[in-house]
UniProtKB/TrEMBL annotation:
A molecular function (GO) term: oxidoreductase activity
PANTHER family: SHORT CHAIN DEHYDROGENASE, SHORT-CHAIN DEHYDROGENASE_REDUCTASE FAMILY PROTEIN
Claim: Kinase is one of the keywords in the record: no
SUPFAM superfamilies cross-referenced by the UniProt entry: NAD(P)-binding Rossmann-fold domains
Protein name (Swiss-Prot/TrEMBL): Short-chain dehydrogenase/reductase
UniProt cross-references to CDD domains, sorted A to Z: 17beta-HSD-like_SDR_c
Coiled-coil segments on the chain, per record: none
Record's keyword annotation contains Endoplasmic reticulum: no
Superkingdom, natural source: Bacteria
Similarity remark: Belongs to the short-chain dehydrogenases/reductases (SDR) family.
Pfam families the record matches: adh_short
This protein's UniProt keywords: Oxidoreductase
Length: 278
């Protein structure tokens, strides 16, 4: 029997999730992977005793609970959880309906919470484990017109992960929030992007941002998803916990710019803003 760690990866039928699953299996790890359609996983990944494809609706807590139960039953344990599933909702704030915004949060935030809620008891019982919550550098630096809802979900994932890291640490569980830049996957060219149902002509900057992502950035992303997978695999084995894991030179550059912007804003109003005590 393999002594390699058992990984549980959501949103694994395409993009970074699929690449991660493929690289994990090459390295001899045991992997349970989820998708809305298990057939998509079976088509993308060859059958193996080390691979468990699972059809899961992340917005359905019982579906998530059952998937985690099957993983532990099949492999006998679960060591690393990767909350990778998600999609991008495009549209200016006033263009998006309540239904569109809530659907985005249901998948990107509440779906992730369903996984955490039912994975934590297993990891806590083992007094070990590593959780990777895949956010985005847009969850740290949010100045992308037309991506407000997506950005809001990723900011939520970052904050949630920071708190979870503190909650889980006493039980030997490590938590990392992953903030990638642009990686060359099919995220910008697939069903992972949703357009607003009622777009308004007044938002030229939103239309330009959308077109730039789908027509110019798509296919030219600087990041190699195989190398991103290698970083996650290395971090899962590393002795030191890294809570904030930026991925890609572009993510590092954007994060540095955001830090400088915040520092400048703070300095601009420091005297007035700190003179608020009784």
């Amino acid at each position: 029997m393999s002594t390699k760690k058992v990984w549980f990866v959501t949103g694994a039928s395409q993009g970074l999730g699929l690449t991660l699953v493929q690289e994990l299996l090459k390295a001899g790890y045991r992997v349970a992977a989820t998708s809305r359609k298990a057939a998509a996983l079976r088509e993308a990944v060859p059958a193996s005793e080390h691979f468990l494809p699972l059809e899961v609706d992340l917005t359905n807590e019982e579906s998530v609970k059952q998937a985690i139960r099957e993983t532990v039953s099949h492999f006998g344990s679960m060591d690393v959880v990767v909350n990778n599933a998600g999609y991008g909702q495009l549209g200016a704030v006033e263009e998006l309906t309540d239904e569109e915004v809530r659907r985005s949060f249901d998948v990107n935030v509440f779906g992730l919470l369903h996984v955490l809620r039912h994975a934590m008891p297993h990891l806590r019982a083992r007094q070990s484990g590593h959780i990777f919550n895949i956010a985005s550098v847009a969850g740290y630096s949010g100045n992308f017109p037309g991506w407000s809802t997506y950005i809001a979900t990723k900011f939520a994932v970052v904050g949630l992960s920071e708190a979870l890291a503190e909650e889980a640490a006493p039980f030997g569980i490590r938590v990392s929030v992953v903030m990638p830049g642009y990686f060359r996957t099919n995220f910008l060219a697939s069903g992972s992007l949703a357009q607003p149902a009622h777009a308004l002509d007044v938002y030229a900057n939103v239309r330009e941002s959308s077109a730039a992502h789908t027509e110019q950035i798509n296919g030219n992303q600087p990041g190699d998803p195989v190398k991103a997978a290698a970083v996650l695999m290395a971090q899962a084995e590393a002795p030191k916990q890294v809570v904030h894991l930026f991925l890609g030179e572009d993510a590092y550059a954007r994060a540095a710019t955001q830090m400088k912007t915040v520092t400048t804003d703070m300095a601009e109003v420091a005297t007035m803003a700190t003179a608020t005590a009784f």
